[in-house]
Design a protein that fits this description.
Blueprint lengths: L2 H11 L10 H19 L6 E7 L6 E3 L7 E6 L4 E2 L1 E2 L2 H4 L19 E5 L2 E5 L7 E7 L19 H14 L5 H16 L4 H9 L6 H5 L17
Parallel strand pairs: 5-6
Antiparallel strand pairs: 1-8, 2-7, 3-4, 3-8, 6-7
Helix pairs in contact: 1-2, 1-4, 2-4, 4-5
């Protein structure tokens, strides 16, 4: 659905108020976008992940990714065909990687990566031009134009309208009973939505007899952080 379709769905759910009483912008759009952002951030979708590449510069170890994402899952050195190891602040604290010039760290092929503040940092600093690829979480972007479409799968568009109705009644609608009704309706609806990652795995394994694997496949949708398959 486009934003215009979501507006129509939401308007129908809240009793079809006139555009004079409840304007599309900013009123309905705000509730739709709040619902969309909550669903996008809370639940796992393939469309929420994307890949990006950049080419390193000799001696430069930090590359700003703040305009693209706040979350990076994995990184690879595609020039040398290998996955880079993720490290945290404990590793960074062992050496003064920020020293300039850095006599403690020799430029070489990147082996590790860290995501600190706004940048992706490569360790050690590259000694040449390497193609680095990483998988990241797509950053939420509000629906603004009537033709804008949420990046969540189409079946989840209905959920956006239901949750937006709960937010509307909880806010400007001023009806806690209806807000609770729509929230409960959303919770019930979302509880048995398919988990994309596991649907795909089930399809791949459908011709293989692995009873234990099939038994471990959850069938209900859970918020992000409960189940998460290893990224490719």
């Amino acid at each position: 659905m486009q934003l215009s379709d979501l507006r129509s769905r939401l308007r129908s759910r809240i009793g079809n108020p006139s555009t004079t009483d409840v304007p599309d912008t900013p009123n309905l759009d705000q509730h739709i976008n709040d619902a969309y952002q909550e669903i996008l951030n809370k639940y796992k979708f393939k469309r929420r992940r994307a890949r990006a590449r950049f080419t390193t510069v000799i001696g430069t170890d930090k590359y700003n990714v703040s305009s693209l994402t706040d979350v990076i899952y994995k990184a690879w050195d595609r020039t040398n065909g290998r996955e880079l190891e993720y490290v945290g602040t404990n590793v960074l604290s062992k050496r003064d990687y920020n020293a300039t010039p850095n006599a403690l760290v020799q430029n070489s092929k990147p082996e590790k990566w860290a995501h600190i503040e706004t940048y992706l940092q490569l360790l050690p600093p590259p000694d040449g031009a390497y193609v680095i690829e990483f998988v990241y979480k797509v950053t939420y972007a509000a629906l603004v134009s009537a033709t804008d479409v949420p990046v969540v799968p189409t079946p989840w568009h209905r959920g956006i309208a239901i949750l937006a109705a709960a937010l509307y009644y909880d806010d400007e609608g001023g009806d806690p009973v209806k807000a609770t009704y729509h929230q409960n309706k959303f919770d019930k609806w979302v509880s048995d939505q398919p988990v994309e990652e596991h649907e795909q795995t089930e399809a791949i394994d459908s011709g293989v007899e692995v009873p234990a694997l099939a038994a471990q496949m959850p069938s209900t949708r859970k918020p992000d952080g409960v189940w998460w398959d290893i990224l490719p």
